[in-house]
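Support request from a user on the community tier.

User writes: "When I paste my structure tokens into the form, the page sometimes reloads and wipes my input. The last time it worked, I copied everything first. Here is what I submitted, just in case something in the input itself triggers the reload:"
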């Protein structure tokens, strides 16, 4: 029997003015993370130490220059720095250009390590979109940064919430634009990508439900034509290409049916359609996985929470969940590769 090694996991600490440093420190205080992986933080030692005080963490800090130098021992936090910054000038709860620059550098370092195959998994703490823009980052957020800088064919977002796997045709678009965006070609492309990624983790003939746009999936055209014009043709085309696609399934029931195990994955047509369902069910354990990259990448799905940063009250459940779920998917992918060999 082939033994799958522990993955090397890089956890970026996010915007140093937000809650990212403290929730990543608390994640490193969980023994299960070390049992399942070899984890380290990408950040700044001074910022990490400040966060450790906030969380009353008395672990040792081991500064490393590359992942191979990590001790990976519970009780020691390995930290890989990306530069020499004026960390003392970083104020909690404020949008700052330097904080944006640091957060962006942490992400770029994780991509560099991932492309060099020095790490297997990246889990990201929240960054602030305004801060990274001040720092000159041309992309609006994490997913776009990872997709573009890894030169991936696609960066497919999935919400993982317990047994729900919810994908998205579009994310940060107005609802009006998102409706037009969800045409036959894009929906079909998403179904293909979902099929590819789900088979890649060992699911045989994964059943993929495409959510409807209109009430009751339009009731045969009574409430709109998008189902007949775009969604039904997309599902039929996917079926003709050998994929187990169904739908469009009315959005008021598709997520409940997914929770019951009727589907392996659900394609949401726009941001809030899938986010509301998952976050209502379990806000803290709704985390993001980005498929299509050369490495596994996960993230919390909450922001920098500037209003509570540095107060020691930010919950770390999502950061821990994002880390452990990404590790699980990485292991599933490795197992599938071994079985296919």
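"...and here is what came back when it finally went through:"
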């Amino acid at each position: 029997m082939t033994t799958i090694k522990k993955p090397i996991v890089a956890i970026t600490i996010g915007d140093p003015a937000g809650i990212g440093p403290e929730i990543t420190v608390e994640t490193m205080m969980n023994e299960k993370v070390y049992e399942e992986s070899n984890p380290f933080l990408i950040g700044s030692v001074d910022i990490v130490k400040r966060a450790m005080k906030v969380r009353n963490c008395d672990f040792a800090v081991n500064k490393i220059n590359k992942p191979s130098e990590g001790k990976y021992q519970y009780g020691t936090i390995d930290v890989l720095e990306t530069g020499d910054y004026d960390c003392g000038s970083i104020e909690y709860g404020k949008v700052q250009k330097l904080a944006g620059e640091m957060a962006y550098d942490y992400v770029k370092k994780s991509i560099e390590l991932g492309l060099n195959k020095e790490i297997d998994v990246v889990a990201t703490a929240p960054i602030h979109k305004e801060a990274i823009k001040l720092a000159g980052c041309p992309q609006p957020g994490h997913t776009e940064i990872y997709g573009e800088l890894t030169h991936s064919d696609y960066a497919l977002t999935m919400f993982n919430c317990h047994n729900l796997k919810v994908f998205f045709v579009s994310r940060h678009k107005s609802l009006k634009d998102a409706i037009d965006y969800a045409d036959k070609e894009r929906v079909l492309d998403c179904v293909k990508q979902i099929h590819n990624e789900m088979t890649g983790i060992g699911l045989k003939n994964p059943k993929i439900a495409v959510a409807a746009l209109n009430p009751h999936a339009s009731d045969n055209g009574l409430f709109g034509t998008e189902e007949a014009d775009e969604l039904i043709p997309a599902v039929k085309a996917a079926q003709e290409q050998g994929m187990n696609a169904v739908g469009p399934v009315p959005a008021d029931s598709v997520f409940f049916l997914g929770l019951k195990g009727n589907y392996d994955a659900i394609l949401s047509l726009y941001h809030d359609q899938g986010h509301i369902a998952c976050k209502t069910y379990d806000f803290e354990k709704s985390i993001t996985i980005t498929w299509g990259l050369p490495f596994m990448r996960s993230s919390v799905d909450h922001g920098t929470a500037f209003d509570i940063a540095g107060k020691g009250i930010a919950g770390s459940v999502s950061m821990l969940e994002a880390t452990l779920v990404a590790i699980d998917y990485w292991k599933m992918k490795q197992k599938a590769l071994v079985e296919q060999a």
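Agent notes: The reload is a front-end session timeout and is unrelated to the input. Residues 1-155+292-341 form a domain with the Isopropylmalate Dehydrogenase fold (CATH 3.40.718.10). The chain is about 40% helix and 15% strand. Escalated to web team.
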